[in-house]
Specification:
alpha/beta; elongated; binds zinc ion
Length: 566
């Protein structure tokens, strides 16, 4: 080309070359001087439990995003990067998240640019996907979780969540054991794990066919694979955690529960394999070094976030140091030299899902209550009685229904005024299903006597039997009579219905051990039965309500029994 176009072309070509050299020069010159040390700020959130909005000026995803924005600006200025990770139990909790099955939170996390999140035990709670009216559709009982993963523009990580059918980690769309990302030219491997007890801490039906592999060997194997693939830094996002009380000295573990799960895991990992663990699940706080691993954990419900700065030496391609920060409360403040403000982009990202939730909450059930229905009454739980009535009504052949609200599964009183879906949902936000059991009259009586003896009478909801209590020599005696007057004998076999335990807020005890409840996965969802019961209430509704809550004089019972036990 040069020879073809003569001298003039040569001059032009040389000029172009020198221009190219000139424009490239600063970069070429900078390379040797490029800061040897690069800072990766790892921000860890966990156990948000749907708390997307600030409460009393504390927390809220728009304000968290404000903190992250300030930190990203600081890292952009010094050539580093921010990695934003969440350690699970993200969705189940506040109504705005629950009624969108977590979609509202994923909308916000997408807008905030999360890098990855671990799957927590309560991330299974929503079961199958809901219809637009928030009723569970039949089908895959992990449908809601899979929908959230598919919606996310960052991966869900679950290295030790094993599909029993394949004996390998689950392979759902956008759910995988680990991910390798590039942050400011540093290759960062991220592994996700969930605590060993995870499947016993959610609704059993939703996790059938899964098992949990031990954390440490899983992390070790996955981290080794990531290192072989070129990872310079390895982070674990762990829905398993610990608890410490002081955060001023990261090396001082004297304020910590040294036997907590994540400490045991950290101590049993080969040295040098994992740099940082972003922990969760226990709702505790951590900013501590354990056997060379920096562990952060931010309490819960979006009150705070954890932070670990990994300072990486590009020259020797190794971590120079890890600086841990005490959990940072999410309140309006200065951060990285600038005032933290709510990020309007996050408010906007959540707006469509929030509107759908508000519409759903306002849906009326066609009934208005003259007086509130309370959880705790003198002779039992009026609201528990109503739930029991609705359950017994819905199950053909049921003799009795019992609700034990000692675990506070019914979370609030039902206020007077028009009954809306939102108000009922506030009472029982869980997707527990109806459980049926066969008990003898004697078993039911013994269980009731035990509950009453422990002072839990006010938490009991019962339908189908009247309970007569009296004092006998060795304590409380219970006589049971069917509502229509026939006595129940010790040897009578009764079909009893109750709420399949556990609820996420504590188990609703039943008159049988949990193992005796039988499968509940195809049973109706408790709240939906109660909703239907209200919708069916014909005119005049109030009498039926009185019957259900046992406020009518006809169901009067002996006064609260306090037996002097010899
Ligand atoms: Zn958890």
């Amino acid at each position: 080309m040069i020879t073809m176009h003569g001298k003039r072309s040569i001059v032009l070509a040389v000029a172009l070359l020198s221009l190219a050299a000139a424009t490239r020069l600063p970069r070429l010159a900078a390379a040797p001087d490029q800061p040897v040390l690069v800072t990766l700020s790892i921000v860890g959130t966990s156990d948000l439990h749907g708390a997307a909005f600030s409460r009393n000026g504390l927390g809220g995803l728009p304000l968290l995003a404000g903190y992250v924005n300030n930190l990203r600006a600081a890292r952009a200025a010094d050539g580093g990067a921010v990695l934003l990770v969440d350690s699970g139990d993200t969705f189940q909790g506040d109504i705005e998240s629950n009624l969108s099955e977590g979609a509202l939170v994923v909308d916000a996390y997408n807008a905030m640019g999360y890098t990855a999140e671990a799957v927590g035990n309560h991330d299974f709670d929503f079961g199958s996907v809901d219809s637009p009216s928030a009723r569970q559709l039949p089908g895959d009982l992990r449908g809601a979780l899979k929908a959230r993963a598919a919606q996310a523009r960052y991966p869900f990580l679950a290295a030790n969540l094993i599909d029993a059918a394949t004996d390998r980690p689950v392979e759902w769309p956008n759910v995988r054991p680990s991910v390798l990302v590039d942050a400011a030219g540093v290759k960062v491997g991220i592994v996700g794990v969930v605590m060993i007890d995870a499947l016993r801490s959610t609704l059993a039906a939703n996790v059938q066919g899964l098992r949990i592999a031990p954390l440490a060997p899983t992390i070790a194997a996955e981290a080794s694979t990531l290192r072989r693939a070129g990872a310079d830094v390895v982070i674990v996002v762990s829905h398993a955690g610990g608890r410490c009380d002081r955060f001023d000295q990261p090396a001082d573990l004297s304020s910590c529960d040294s036997e907590s799960e994540i400490f045991r895991v950290a101590r049993s990992l080969p040295r040098g394999l994992v740099d940082v663990i972003a922990a969760g699940h226990t709702h505790g706080g951590l900013a501590h070094h354990v056997d060379g691993i920096g562990i952060i954990q931010p309490f819960s419900r979006g009150q705070a976030f954890g932070r670990a700065d990994v300072v990486f030496d590009r020259r020797i391609r190794s971590v120079a140091r890890i600086q841990l920060f005490a959990p940072q409360e999410i309140v309006p403040a200065q951060y990285e030299g600038t005032a933290v403000t709510n990020d309007p982009a996050i408010v906007q990202a959540m707006a469509p899902a929030l509107q759908r939730v508000h519409d759903l909450q306002a849906t009326t059930l066609g009934v208005s209550l003259d007086v509130p229905i309370r959880r705790v009454g003198e002779l039992g739980s009026p609201l528990g009685n109503l739930f029991a009535e609705a359950l017994r009504d819905a199950v053909p052949g049921a003799d009795v229904a019992v609700i034990n609200n000692a675990g506070r599964g019914l979370r609030t009183d039902l206020p007077d005024g028009p009954l809306t879906f939102g108000r009922l949902y506030d009472v029982f936000p869980f997707d527990n299903r109806v459980a049926r059991i066969t008990v003898t009259g004697a078993e039911l009586g013994r269980w009731l006597a035990g509950e009453i003896r422990q002072g839990r009478r006010g938490a009991l909801g019962i339908s189908g039997v009247r309970v007569w209590t009296s004092c006998i020599a060795d304590g409380i005696h219970v006589d049971l009579v069917r509502t229509e007057g026939r006595p129940i004998h010790d040897e009578d076999r009764l079909l009893a219905v109750t709420i399949g335990a556990p609820t996420p807020s504590g188990s609703l005890a039943s008159p049988a051990p949990l193992g005796g409840l039988g499968p509940t996965e195809n049973a109706p969802v408790v709240r939906e039965l109660v909703e239907d019961w209200f919708r069916r209430l014909a005119h005049p509704a109030q009498r039926r309500l009185d019957d259900a809550t046992h406020r009518s004089p006809g169901s009067a019972d002996a006064p609260t029994v306090i037996c002097a036990i010899p």
